[in-house]
Amino acid sequence: MAERILKYKKSIMIFFIILAIVSAVAQFAVSVNYDMVDYLPDETSSIEATDIMNEEFDGAVTNTRVMMKDVSIQEALAFKEELEAVDGVSEVMWLDDVIDMKQPVEMADSDTVESYYKDRNALFSFHIEDGKEVETTDAVYELIGKDNAMSGEALNTAISQKKTGSESMNAALILVPIIILILLLSTRSWIEPLLFLTAIGVSVLINLGTNVFIGEVSFVTQAVAPILQLAVSLDYAIFLLHSFDDYRHEIADPKEAMSRAMERSFPAIAASASTTFFGFMALTFMEFGLGADLGLNLVKGILLSFISVMVFLPALTLMFYKWIDKTQHKPFMPSTYHVGNFFMKLRIPVLLIMMILIVPAFLAQSQTNFLYGTGENPEHTRAGSDAAAIEETFDKFTPMVLLVPKGDMAREEKMVQELDDLEQVKSTVSYVNTVGAGIPPQYLDDEQTEQFFSENYSRITLNTTTEAEGKVAFALVEKVRSIASDYYGDDYHALGESFTLYDMKDIVQQDNKLVNLMTVITIAIVLLATFRSISIPVVLLLTIQSAVWINLSVPYFTDSSLVYVGYLIVSTVQLAATVDYAILFTENYTQNRKEMTAIDAIKKTINEKIFSIGVSVSILSCVGFILWATSSDPIVASIGLLLGRGALLAFILVVLFLPALLLVFDKVIEKTTWKPNFYKRKG
């Protein structure tokens, strides 16, 4: 295979470059989905309820609010007409939809009135059509000016659409120079870093372009996958070119040197790619489609990176090896560090510290206060300050909708009264308390009843004062479902953001167990095959899994909330991406162990491998922290922070905790490994 690749190097290089250019153009045809709800399974109860309401009723659930300050009732009514005229806006709801405006406002229920009009501030709720979020919110901002406020799901979606592309570009512009700098410090040629980045960059472009066959990707995938693919698979290129560099000192013929380098580095690259590949593959089994979407892209990316490094990079390198020779420079940093002796002196304290930390970290990482939506916008942004201003005047607001069989007015009236008495329900909007149960609907015009009745259902809207999610919100979801069940059994449907997030919580928590179990099992199988040992996979997985647990427990101990999707993805990605450090360290240790005692082999391995592992860690960690620093999206930012911190923790444990474990279990490893050929001291 190596000979064939090297024989047709020019054709291979041209083919990959053309494919990358075509892919770069094709990626613009891939649509990006910003709605997390779309990734819930169709059979989820809140999704089924939404589908039924869309079939039965013309109007959708409101997803945006606007507060107009210092307006009279007549001015508010006039503004409502202007708002209804905006393209993409529908179902504008205000006070005139819930009370008879012919009567004095003072005679109406004060809670109902104050849900829409308070201290001369008018609050309008409306729906913005899917796909029109950006242009519609821009038009609404133009209509309301700078002094008034807007908030809601549709606005958050619009903000994500505007920022995801530019923020990914900003992250790349910061990241690429940093990676080049790290690679320059760790190589002996000015041009080698460009070859690394070209090989992986081509595979990233092809990965982005081939998404055209999928048709659509999530905004999380669009923001995270390319940068993550670059960081995780850059090691493959480094392995190959370092081997090539070593053989160039022994073999005069560059072709022969590359052939030997490909042969020597293939097992290490294949093992590294396999653990990452199977780790990411576990994400594709998530029931929550966002994880599956990201998993598919990362699996595809790792496969393409592997092919690019083993096929395109050798061809590219042989085309430009003379440039590598001409741009040689003295190493800026030594590749060997004499720290093994010092680290070995720390092994007992490290083992004691880890014994104290592991159990609390394992317990704490699942007890964090999780968010299942995207969280709130920062207050320094207009969206954040607007949301705070609306909440200050009208409290928090999360609408819930119930669909119940129509016809039994008495039963509906009793249920609405019970719902209205709930502490977190500020007001309810239904036929029985807006028009009155005593007035038969058939005596009224369709315009007066169409928002309450469809052919089969009666619609009841609850204006609640809770957050969209959290303990209070989810307790209210359970209470509302319980009350509806008492009156209608299973013959009702509940929808709204809180119900959707509640369902999302149930699904992703189940996904967590499945994905983590699959990740550990598949990586363990790869490690078993790589080391032909029963005990080494256990030692390696314990090391990296400990780093994962400590990383994910930090939010609990710092009393901060964590976006659950970020937690779920990073618990898999960190394990899959950083186990390579443990593999590289242990492979070198087992080779050294054939020639020397366990403690000498550990010291030598630390001295030889701490630099190369440090290079990989610094790249992955930089990727994570730059994503965190440049992204305003809470999901992307949380993935970045967890990844950056996780890479550093993995590095610390691989150079401190793993050596201690290998030393403690040296005899066990020898007995449970096939043909270890460990050195035995004579006499």
Features:
single chain; 683 residues; alpha+beta; Multidrug efflux transporter AcrB transmembrane fold; Alpha-Beta Plaits; 4 domains; five-stranded antiparallel beta sheet; four-stranded antiparallel beta sheet; 25 helices
Descriptive overview:
With 683 residues, the protein is an alpha+beta fold. The protein has four domains: 1-33 and 187-332, Multidrug efflux transporter AcrB transmembrane domain (Multidrug efflux transporter AcrB transmembrane fold), CATH 1.20.1640; 63-151, Alpha-Beta Plaits; 337-364 and 508-683, Multidrug efflux transporter AcrB transmembrane domain (Multidrug efflux transporter AcrB transmembrane fold, Up-down Bundle), CATH 1.20.1640; 382-501, Alpha-Beta Plaits (2-Layer Sandwich), CATH 3.30.70. The chain is 66% helix and 8% strand. The protein has helices spanning 2-7, 9-26, 45-56, 73-84, 110-114, 133-144, 153-186, 192-210, 219-248, 254-283, 289-319, 321-326, 340-345, 347-364, 382-394, 409-420, 431-436, 446-449, 471-488, 497-531, 535-557, 564-593, 598-630, 634-664, 666-671; strands at residues 31-33, 64-68, 89-93, 117-118, 121-128, 149-152, 216-218, 370-371, 398-405, 425-429, 457-464, 493-495, 562-563. Strands 2, 3, 4, 5 and 6 form a five-stranded antiparallel β-sheet that branches. The two termini are 47 Å apart. 49% of the residues are buried.
